[in-house]
Amino acid sequence: MKRCARSLASATALLLAGSTGFAADIIGEPAINYCRTVGTSDLVLTDNMVELKDHVVKLMDESVAVANSPEWINSSRPAFVWASEAKVACGMAYGYLKTNYKDEDTLNKCECFHDRMVEYMH
Questions:
Q1: DSSP state for residue 33 in the 8-state scheme
Q2: pLDDT attached to residue 6
Q3: Phi/psi of residue 99, each to 5°?
Q4: Fewest C-beta in 10 Å: which of 41, 52, 76, 77?
Q5: How far is Cα 57 from Cα 33, in angstroms, rounded to an integer?
Q6: CA–CA gap between residue 43 and residue 4 (Å, rounded)
């Protein structure tokens, strides 16, 4: 019995020592690149703040329309999910732009999520 308990303890120690915790580690590289169609977004590269705000509002309005549409809410395609993500990201980006701050992360997400939404609509 002692031998079995020692073997079990050794096996557990080896298993724990070999485990690096990647399964629950969200800090590492994502398994799926959801923004594969977008690197640095065109929004980030836009220097004209008025034009940038207008474009972000356009993307946000389109996303809100899809997120509120029964056609997409009841669809089996994930366009609604990406529309919901896009409206939040674009809303945050617009909030930053209202203070004349160009937040690259939210602009990238806004364009990426909107692109994903459109991808799943077609």
A1: -
A2: 53
A3: -100, 15
A4: 76
A5: 25
A6: 63
The first and second tokens of residue 108, run together, are 């990238």
Q: How many Å apart are CA 19 and CA 25, to the nearest integer?
A: 12
Where residue 21 falls (left for φ over 0; alpha for ψ -120 to 50; beta otherwise) is left
The amino acid occupying position 90 is C
Burial grade of 121 (CB within 10 A; 0-12, 13-18, 19 or more): middle
Q: How far apart are CA 15 and CA 3, in angstroms?
A: 18
| Helix, coil or strand: residue 93 | helix
Locus of tokens 């474009």: 55
The type of residue at 56 is: V
Closest CA to 118 of 2, 38, 8, 49: 38
Instruction: Encode pLDDT of 93-108 as tens digits.
Output: 999 999 999 999 999 9
What does the pLDDT look like over 43-86, one tens digit per residue?
Answer: 888 899 999 999 999 999 999 999 999 999 999 999 999 999 99
